[in-house]
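Entry 12.
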Amino acid sequence: MFNRTLGAQVRDGVLHVPPGQVLTCAGAGMSRGFAVIEPLLRHAERIGVEIRWSTPLAGLVRDGGRVTGAVTGAGVVPGAVVVATGGFQASPQLRLRHLGPDWASARLRGTRLATGDGITAAIQAGATPAGDWSRCHSAAVDLSMPSPGSSAAPPPFPLHAFWLGVLVNTGGERFGGRSVRHSTGT
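Predicted 3D structure (tokens):
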């Protein structure tokens, strides 16, 4: 369910949101994004796709130029493989390598399962990294807010409205967002 009270309108089957406006979502699962993948999971189940939840990926098996299986803690699972393990936000080492030193100690508020294991396994099996790994999506939250108790727990804080303020570090210095240049008048 979308909140259209901020000027968002559906025209010709497309949702249009005016510049500067915020589109919020409500409903079961929306805060975690799971509602987005539920139809995909139902379809995968209908066509016989086996999904291994909470199964650590140790590596991928290759035969020639093809991936022919996945190595898990329970052994080798043969067949076609789709690596859908998320990003690397739960890995301080990968955040340090790709995002820089300020991100190594960032407090994680999302899933603790996105450790980059799938990305690492794919690269070790011959996949070529693509895109810009030096940027990320993040949300500003109060440093004193607790982390979720589990990956399935909803965030214990709102992830909206930070665009209304200025972000400063513990030294009171502005950071993030757009750069603001101050003129000295000379």
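Annotation: The chain has four helices and five strands. Residues 34-46 form the longest helix (13 residues).
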